[in-house]
Structures are given as C-alpha cells and as structure tokens.
Amino acid sequence: MLGVSLGGYLAPCAAAYAPRLAAIVALDGVFDAVSALTAHLPLPHEEAVRRAAAEHDEEMDRLIADARARSPILRWAFDHGRYVTRTSNDR
C-alpha cells in the first residue's frame, strides 16, 4: 500500500488492521513545511520564524501578503492553515 500526504498518515492506520498487506509506504509529501513556506520570503529562515511568532510585526505581515500575491501555492497553504487552525491571520 502507498499513502501520500494525508494518505501517508492513513496508510499505516489501515495497515494496522489489514493483515493481508505485506508492506506499506507512508510518504508525507512535505519534509519541512516551515522551510517550504519561509523559502518564499526575502528573509533568512531563522529570522522569518522568529518574526512570524511576534505579537505584532507589520513589515512581516506585508512580506507574507506580497508572497501570497505571487504564489498560488503559498496562498493555498496559508488559507488552509487559517481554516485548520480557525484563525484569521497568517501568523
């Protein structure tokens, strides 16, 4: 059995109850989600992570908004993050 992304989580769960399976491959799809997101920002990774955790950082908010405008993948990632965490901002 091969599971990719959410399937990378679900495949081992299913395999635990399916004795006929000889092997599974669980591929999460993203090795380091934070690095995948910070790569779109014009900041070193460590600075982007530190500033993203700040209570208020208007410049960081602008950098994220600019990156979202340039990348549909990044826009989806942040929108999905907002949905999953039930928050209204990108940080």
Number of strands: 2
What sort of overall outline do the alpha carbons produce when their principal axes are compared? elongated
User: Main β-sheet, in a few words?
Assistant: 2 strands, parallel
Mean pLDDT: 90
Number of helices: 5
Strand content: 5-15%
What is the number of domains?
2
Query: Helical proportion?
Result: 55-70%
Structural class: mainly alpha
Q: Please give the alpha-carbon distance between the first and last residues.
A: 36 Å
Give, in order, the helices and strands. Answer: EHEHHHH
Radius of gyration over alpha carbons?
17 Å
- Physical arrangement of strands within the biggest beta sheet: 1-2
Poorly predicted segments = none
Keywords:
2 strands, 5 helices, 91 residues, mainly alpha, 2 domains, 7% strand, two-stranded parallel sheet
Question: What's the layout of helices and strands?
Answer:
Blueprint: E1 2-4, H1 6-15, E2 25-27, H2 33-38, H3 45-52, H4 58-70, H5 72-85
Parallel strand pairs: 1-2
Describe it.
Strands 1-2 form a two-stranded parallel ribbon. The mean pLDDT is 90. The protein has two domains: 1-29, no CATH class; 31-91, no CATH class. The chain has 91 residues and is mainly alpha-helical. The radius of gyration is 17 Å and the shape is elongated. It has helices spanning 6-15, 33-38, 45-52, 58-70, 72-85, and strands at residues 2-4, 25-27. The longest helix is centred in the C-terminal third of the chain and has 14 residues, at 72-85. It has five helices and two strands; from the N terminus they run E-H-E-H-H-H-H.
